[in-house]
Design brief:
The complex is a heterodimer.
Chain A lengths: L1 H29 L2 H30 L6 H6 L6 H6 L5 H22 L5 H25 L23 H30 L4 H32 L10 H26 L3 H24 L12 H25 L14 H33 L7 H19 L1 H4 L7 H7 L1 H18 L4 H27 L4 H6 L3 H26 L1 E7 L4 E4 L2 E12 L4 E10 L5 E10 L4 E5 L1 E3 L4 E11 L2 E10 L2 H18 L2 H6 L16
Antiparallel strand pairs in A: 1-9, 2-3, 3-4, 4-5, 5-6, 7-8, 8-9
Helix pairs in contact in A: 1-2, 1-6, 2-5, 2-6, 5-6, 5-7, 6-7, 6-11, 7-8, 7-10, 8-9, 8-20, 9-10, 9-12, 10-11, 12-13, 13-17, 16-17, 17-19, 19-20
Chain B lengths: L1 H23 L19 E2 L9 E2 L8 E6 L4 H15 L4 E6 L3 H11 L6 E4 L3 H6 L6 E5 L5 E6 L4 H17 L2
Classes of the chains: A alpha+beta, B alpha/beta.
Chain lengths: 656, 177
């Protein structure tokens, strides 16, 4: 029953999306308010019906209705309920449904709460949104229908990939998709503005919260994904330059550029056509990110099942959305009034430089990810691009960009003076120089990169605190009031930039001081490692809800109170796969990471890692997202926009 | 002139799109190998295991076998490794080559995860792999009784690939004279 309801709801949603794409565009063209109102109704109804369809699919998964093919392939009665629910989006069809659900919810929010927008602009935005929604409903229904029945129904389903049965992965896709899809709103605004031929500060005030609302979950999603790879894949790395990871990084980099350029547009009315272009490109990269890995063009460890028919459809959608919008851009953008002038040395100039670097970084990742495809086309060579490429291209560019981060907020709008700027940044500069010097003394010239990394972290942290300190110092006579009246956006800026500093600290720490050790251990054996002593105090078979595991427990002494750490190799019977659960002791100074390997007569293979400061990588990511959230709550962003505009993702359920 | 700058994005995008569409037809995991049917090029590699006998062309032939190229830095190798361990338990003749990797790292990897190989050579420069046409690890070759390459698989070996392709092929090769 649920499958049929879901199927009909999805068909209705497709029809409503078609209505939503046609009527408001025509209405805005004709100035017909009734047609525009129909568009709003259609958007709200579409959101309701997609929610219904998603609810049906979730119900099918949770109740283990194996007469639905998708559930039979990805759910299992032995799987805990939370993971049965998460399995709803742990597969191609379900994750696509989640994608359109978020898209439809964005549309619904725009329609229901966009009352302060100029009516024609709102109608056009909704129309473009409807076009995107319709094409993806079509994609779902015609190539990836999640509600297909299976006859006869099996009594037991196949299991969700055990690697995905993890709290981090339950949250990861909805959060990441909220980010990807959130950028669709900025895209719709950009296209609508091109149709209208009008970009103004009001437009920018509307776009910026949406960009921010997409950027926050994207930042969170990437951070969660990296943390998951660290603890679940069992080999202690945190970023692998895998195509799927790159696919999420590209829209993030460009989205970050957009976040800054929209600020210039909102405040100063400059960088108009550039911001519009960024809106288009960011969403295009999000599309590429979600879909290219499913088209079979690239291989990836993370990829879903590859189907060329889907690939053609997806590429068709990308070709139409991006191609048409860029063509529209080529035609209409030159006519849009170009913005206010500014001196090279000014806040605007700084942000332009930031955009330049972020775009270059995006291009680096794009080339690294896709050059295998193009090189093969040109001369039939197969190449693979790995970390060494990124170490030589991405890392130096990112380093320079991070050096520049501190300057931006120190510069005045319109014009500034070199000498005055240098005086303003003297404290973080002195601090960074001190750290650099100490690092060089401690590590010698061989450690110049380490010292540079630490100096950079100090520079970023001190530089972001300086933003607040300067404001409070200026109002020190009435400090209480100065603190109270500091806009939240400024706290957001401080947090986001400080997050980058923490990230730099973590990356430097783990790159410079990581150490590991592999050995065979028997019960009762003791090993000294990185200032700690580990004893294998228990080694036994344990049974989980849907797996059996060989669990090793270690007693760790040294560096504070003794504690227990356990690592296990799990065997999932119904999926016929093994996973390794690492034992990780997380402390601010560094993680102790233990994972067990094969057993033999000599004992069990134990791999130990010491990851100094690594946790700051993810704390940095979370702090950046928090900065975004604080900034989003700023009054200034709410004034122009009646909505807080956080696209509600499908309620993710915390596992366990 | 200014106009051209605005047209540039759509032109670039069209070029990228052509690349994507052209790339669509190919299966990234399926690579033609010029080596199919030819004898494995001459090689002699030191062992990854300290003090063990190396891996050389002389070890090939007699029985159908698999040569698996791996590296400690390779992500997908981790995915296929449990299956390789299963193959070893089932008695499949499986040799390994640690490609473009430090032998210590390759050895540690085997210590850590289990060692599925009969012989395992260390190809630090990657020369042997290049002679075989390896583009990226993991890659797996099926070698027949005469020491000729009969099949090449790029990417992790999956249980499905083993059951549907590699095992039947090796059974067939075993019955060849």
């Amino acid at each position: 029953m649920a499958a049929e309801v879901g199927q009909f709801a999805l068909i209705l949603a497709l029809l409503l999306a078609v209505v939503q794409s046609m009527t408001p565009l025509w209405g805005a063209h004709r100035g017909d308010r009734i047609l525009m109102a129909v568009g709003r109704q259609a958007a709200v109804l579409q959101a309701l019906f997609v929610s219904l369809a998603f609810g049906c699919l979730a119900y099918i998964f949770v109740t283990c209705d194996f007469s639905v093919a998708l559930a039979a392939q990805h759910s299992n009665t032995a799987q805990p309920t939370a993971y049965r629910f998460a399995a709803t989006w742990g597969n191609h069809e379900g994750s696509m449904l989640l994608w359109v659900l978020i898209l439809a919810l964005c549309g619904g929010v725009l329609a229901a709460f966009g009352g302060t927008l100029r009516e024609t602009l709102q109608a056009r935005v909704l129309g473009i949104q409807g076009l995107i929604a319709a094409s993806f409903h079509g994609f779902l229904l015609f190539t990836s229908n999640p509600f297909l029945r299976l006859d006869p129904a099996p009594s037991e389903g196949m299991e969700l990939n055990p690697l995905l049965q993890d709290p981090g992965l339950v949250l990861h896709p909805p959060v990441l998709y909220a980010g990807y899809v959130g950028f669709s709103v900025a895209f719709c605004f950009a296209v609508a503005a091109l149709i209208e031929g009008r970009v103004d500060a009001a437009w920018a005030r509307w776009v910026r919260p949406w960009v921010l609302a997409a950027w926050i979950p994207l930042t969170l999603g990437i951070t969660l994904g990296s943390a998951w790879a660290y603890y679940e894949l069992g080999w202690g790395g945190w970023w692998f330059w895998d195509p799927v990871e790159n696919a999420s990084l590209m829209p993030w980099l460009l989205g970050t550029a957009l976040l800054h350029s929209a600020l210039v547009l909102e405040r100063r009315g400059a960088l108009v056509s550039w911001t519009v272009l960024l809106c288009i490109l960011t969403f295009s990269l999000s599309l590429v990110g979600t879909f290219l890995v499913r088209s079979g063009i690239l291989t990836s460890v993370h990829a879903f099942a590859v189907d060329p028919k889907r690939g053609v459809y997806v590429l068709g959608i990308i070709a139409l959305t991006t191609g048409l919008s860029l063509a529209l851009y080529a035609w209409r953008a030159p006519a849009i009034r170009s913005g206010a002038l500014f001196q090279p040395l000014s806040r605007e100039g700084g942000i332009t430089l930031n955009n330049l670097f972020l775009t270059a970084l995006t291009a680096t990742v794009f080339l690294g990810t896709f050059s295998p495809v193009f090189i093969e086309m040109l001369n039939n060579d197969k190449i693979s691009v790995g970390p060494p490429y990124y170490a030589r291209t991405f890392v130096p560019l990112a380093f320079v960009l991070l050096l520049l981060v501190v300057f931006g907020p120190m510069l005045n709008w319109k014009r500034d003076d070199w000498r005055a700027t240098l005086v303003r940044i003297r404290v973080p500069a002195a601090l960074a120089a001190g750290v650099l010097l100490l690092g060089l003394i401690a590590n010698g010239l061989a450690g110049v990169i380490t010292a540079g990394g630490l100096g950079l972290a100090a520079w970023l942290l001190a530089g972001s605190v300086l933003v607040l300190a300067r404001r409070w110092w200026a109002g020190r006579a009435y400090l209480g009031r100065a603190i109270r009246t500091t806009p939240r956006a400024l706290y957001g800026l401080t947090l986001a930039h400080a997050g980058l500093g923490l990230l730099a600290l973590g990356i430097t720490g783990v790159t410079a001081w990581e150490s590991d050790k592999v050995l065979n251990m028997r019960l009762g054996d003791t090993v000294a490692f990185a200032g700690r002593t580990l004893t294998l105090s228990a080694f036994e078979t344990v049974t989980g809800p849907n797996y059996e595991a060989r669990q090793a427990r270690f007693t760790v002494t040294g560096q504070g109170k003794p504690y227990m750490l356990s690592s296990e190799k799990r065997f999932y019977a119904s999926a016929q796969t093994q996973t390794t659960e690492a034992g990780i002791r997380v402390t601010p100074l560094g993680n102790l990471y233990v994972s067990v390997g094969e057993e033999s007569p000599q004992g069990v293979v134990v791999r130990l890692w010491d990851h100094p400061l690594i946790v700051w990588i993810w704390i940095g990511g979370f702090v950046m997202a928090l900065g975004g959230a604080v900034s989003l709550s700023d009054r200034r962003l709410r004034l122009g926009a009646a909505v807080k505009a956080v696209p509600a993702a499908a309620q993710p359920v915390a596992a366990e | 002139m200014r106009r051209l700058i605005f047209i540039l994005p759509v032109v670039l995008f069209a070029a990228v799109l052509i690349g994507f569409f052209a790339g669509l037809g190919r299966d990234p995991a399926l690579l033609p190998s010029t080596m199919i049917g030819k004898p494995v090029p001459e090689f002699s590699l030191p062992s990854v295991r300290p003090g063990d006998q190396g891996f050389a062309t002389a070890d090939l032939g007699g029985e159908p076998m698999l040569i698996n190229f791996y590296a400690s830095w390779c992500a997908a190798c981790r995915i296929e490794h449990p299956l390789l361990m299963r193959l070893r338990a089932e008695g499949v003749l499986l040799h390994g080559v640690d490609w473009k990797d430090q032998p210590q790292a390759g050895y540690q990897w085997l210590q850590d995860r289990g060692d599925p190989y009969v012989r395992v050579g260390s190809d630090v420069s990657g020369r042997t792999g290049i002679d075989m046409g390896v583009s990226a690890v993991p890659e797996t070759f099926v070698i027949d009784k005469q020491g000729r390459v009969r099949y090449r698989h790029v990417g992790a070996v999956t249980p499905q690939l083993w059951d549907e392709t590699l095992r039947p092929l090796m059974d067939k090769l075993r019955s060849e004279s």
